[in-house]
């Protein structure tokens, strides 16, 4: 299976081979541009998960800067590559949260 995280010459992401298992909040997938360093770092991090070398990370930033979109695209790439890693995406909403609520929802 080829690596699906790749850029075209115009610095837009190549979408060939990607199955969009979850809808990305960017609208049309080709509207997602940039975030090269972030996606490359996270993609390599997932490769190290397969090798049992990665640890958990926190993906933090101000509101509305694209954190969720980056993770949605990463999810779709990992899902499409099907290399023995099952992507998991859960978005916490604002407000009171508990482990019991998480279990019931998920």
Automatic annotation (TrEMBL):
InterPro entries hit by this protein: P-loop_NTPase
Lineage: Bacteria, Pseudomonadati, Thermodesulfobacteriota, Desulfobacteria, Desulfobacterales
Name of the protein: AAA domain-containing protein
